[in-house]
Amino acid sequence: MKNIRVFLLPAVIAAAGITLTSCHKQAAHEGQLMSVDVAYPVEDSVMIYKTYPGSLKARRTVELVGRVNGYLIASDYNGGDLVKKGKVLFRIEDTSYRDAVAKAEAALTTAEGNLKYAESRYHAMVEALKGDAVSEMEVQEAQSTLVQCQAAVKNAQASLQQARTTLSYCTVTAPFDGHVTASNISVGGFVGGEGSPVSLATIYMDDDMDAVFAIDDDKALAQLRKNIDSGLIDYKHIPISFSEHLSRPYYGVLSYEAPDINTSTGTLEMKASVANPDYELKSGMYASIQLPYEAEPDAIMVKDAAIGTDQLGKYVYVVNDSDKVVYTPIRIGDLVRDSLRIVNSGLTVKDRYVTKALMKVRDGMEVNPVVVK
């Protein structure tokens, strides 16, 4: 038994030495491999959008004008103010127009007095005719005078109404709540608006905006109408983005489709209504309208930053079961969820793809893959 123990001990030591040497070599080999982050493609149901360029317009835009002659005596707001409906914005000298109203009122009073006398005379003539005190001709003359006086009163009333309307033009008020541009004419400047209206400023009803865009793709238009008819896609929450940095995201409601195609451009105009509670959206801003197009129930997606481009097209690096990098061409689709790109072909959900450091890996390179989410 002693001899057996003596001969076994070197064998055990030798075996242990081989094992330690093998582990050391393996650890050294793994230490030399570059670690790369890899991830599995995401498979999920996504909505495909088509993006259209457009611009914003206020729901209503009205040019405020001067329609009388006179000096501008007051501008009762500051340019850019949000004003309420009925707010007095401009006052134009009105002395001559007040005089015109006074003359029209006097003319009406005279006409009404003449009418009252003509009515009394006519009724008296009718009674006198019964007793043969007057002739039938005199009654007819009295009736004619009465008719003329009635017409004179109506003319005087119309003249007075016109004079009062013209006088009202001397005060320009806000037709609705909205933001007003700076005045085009300074206080003290002359407004010659009787011959042709003179622009004073513009007011915008901008608590709601219209994102105006156009569709020029017959296939997209047909799909849009199909989606609307089926009710499967919600067009009351359309993402709308801007180049400007804004305080929050904005969404629109599809609100208008033009009844005809623009023959000069071959496009169909559409509008999406956008709420503007903070008034940070301005008329004329450029917008990108992301119109829902089609739902894809089993889309395969990878991080857009992990996709490379070369002369052959788009590609990703896949790490196979042997931990070797494989150059893999792919065909891509739309960008979704801000950072994910749909892959139409070339990948499966079981493929591990390199998420970053694309410039440091190459086809056939052995790596140490680290799975990240």
In brief:
This protein has helices at residues 2-32, 95-130, 136-168, 218-230, and strands at 35-39, 42-66, 69-75, 82-83, 88-92, 171-173, 178-180, 190-192, 198-215, 238-241, 250-257, 268-275, 286-303, 308-310, 313-319, 325-329, 331-336, 340-345, 352-354, 368-371. The protein is an alpha+beta fold and 373 residues long.
What do you see in this structure?
This protein is of the alpha+beta class and 373 residues long. The chain is 30% helix and 38% strand. It has 4 helices and 20 strands. It has helices at 2-32, 95-130, 136-168, 218-230; strands at residues 35-39, 42-66, 69-75, 82-83, 88-92, 171-173, 178-180, 190-192, 198-215, 238-241, 250-257, 268-275, 286-303, 308-310, 313-319, 325-329, 331-336, 340-345, 352-354, 368-371. The strands form 3 sheets. Strands 1, 14, 15, 16, 19 and 20 form a 6-stranded mixed beta sheet that branches. The chain has a 6-stranded antiparallel barrel with strand order 2-9-12-11-10-13. β10 (238-241) and β11 (250-257) form a beta hairpin. α2 (95-130) packs antiparallel against α3 (136-168). The longest helix is centred in the N-terminal third of the chain and has 36 residues, at 95-130. The two termini are 59 Å apart. The model is unreliable at 1-28 (pLDDT under 50).
